[in-house]
Amino acid sequence: MQSFNLDQTIIAWSSIAENVFVPHTEEEYDRLVEMLDSLIDQVGEDESHPLASLMEVIGVLIENYETEQIPELEAIS
Length: 77
Description:
The protein is mainly alpha-helical.
């Protein structure tokens, strides 16, 4: 099992935190949706693509926001 390196994580996170975040506003949600659209264009169905897991994480963040903030979407499903 690989050990967690906090110092490395701090360095890496500081460079991506502006793009990977839990959305709290509609504007932040829209930014993530735009980012997901770009990732889908780049990654497509290629699960081995280096950005595939980022696409999955952004998708989960969007889905959670929609579940919490847009409950009528869940009623349609």
